[in-house]
Amino acid sequence: MTERMMSKALEGVKSFAGKRALITGASSGLGLEFADLLAAQKVNLVLAARRLEPMEKLAADLRRKYRVDVLVEAIDLASPGAADRLKRSLDAKSAPIDILVNNAGYGLHGDFLETAIERTVDMIQLNITALTELTYLFGRDMAARRSGHILLVASLLGFQAVPSYAAYAATKAYVLAFGEALHDELRPHGVVVTSLCPGHTATGFDAAAGATASSLLRLLTMKPRPVAASGIAALSKGRATVVAGLANKMVALSNRLTPRSMQRATMRKIIGP
């Protein structure tokens, strides 16, 4: 998606001006783009991630650029009970959340048995448990107010089993199924739930996962801003799911037409060993 296409995607999108959004994983990657795009709509923000310094810099930039209120919460969401601590902190500051962007997460590349189980469990804690707890805690408030929006960042890898990303892809399959179910469950309560499924994106994902992108995967790589824009546009339109990018949409569609064994073999070739 080019910048022009991104702008077109956001045309006619309902503005979230005056709302407050909580963005997790806000210190880098997609989190930065979500923050900038929402602040441009005059949305007040809460940035939550482990690293304080980059968030403080981002907050200062957004306050100066868009004249919005930005709170910063330095927290390790992979630690047990972190979601509850974050909710209590925001309650104490009288900062109700209208938009939850559940973006925090990371992947681990490599064979399952060759990866330390402690790292896999930590990833599951962040990608699944923290995301679920945050959705519950803030979703309850939204349902009580009969108004709210929740964006869950899943992945294109959530549509199939992926050798070398076995546990990560499984966590994103959970996020995708969880989000689609909640889309129907919470809609009668005035809450929109949308699952965003990016493909390979130019963030720090590969470095964190311990992976090197194959030449084919590099050709399919999207910039983070249009990915974030597609998620915000879909959320504002009340969609259940959005796959970012035409090529990624074709991959997701092909999974409906091919045997699962072929899907695994294809993903092994695209991602590489």
What is the oligomeric state here?
single chain
Class of secondary structure makeup? alpha/beta
- CATH C-level class: Alpha Beta
> What is the name of the CATH topology?
Rossmann fold
The chain-level mean pLDDT equals 91
Q: Strand order, biggest sheet?
A: 3-2-1-4-5-6-7
Order of helices and strands, N to C?
HEHEHEHEHEHEHHHEHH
Instruction: Return the CATH architecture.
Output: 3-Layer(aba) Sandwich
Radius of gyration: 18 Å
Number of helices: 11
How large a portion of the residues is in β-strands, by DSSP E? 5-15%
**Which spans of ≥5 residues are poorly predicted at pLDDT below 50?**
none
Q: Approximately how much helix is present in the residues?
A: 40-55%
How would you sum up the major sheet? 7 strands, parallel
Number of domains: 1
Query: How widely separated are the two ends?
Result: 28 Å
Principal-axis shape = globular
CATH superfamily, by name, is NAD(P)-binding Rossmann-like Domain
Strand element count:
7
Structure description:
There is one protein chain. The chain has 273 residues and is α/β, with parallel strands linked by helices. It has a single domain (3-271), classed as 3-Layer(aba) Sandwich (Rossmann fold). It has helices spanning 3-10, 30-40, 52-66, 82-92, 117-145, 166-186, 205-209, 215-219, 224-236, 246-254, 260-271; strands spanning 20-24, 44-49, 70-74, 99-102, 148-153, 191-197, 241-243. The protein has a seven-stranded parallel sheet with strand order 3-2-1-4-5-6-7, sandwiched between helices. It is globular and about 50 Å long.
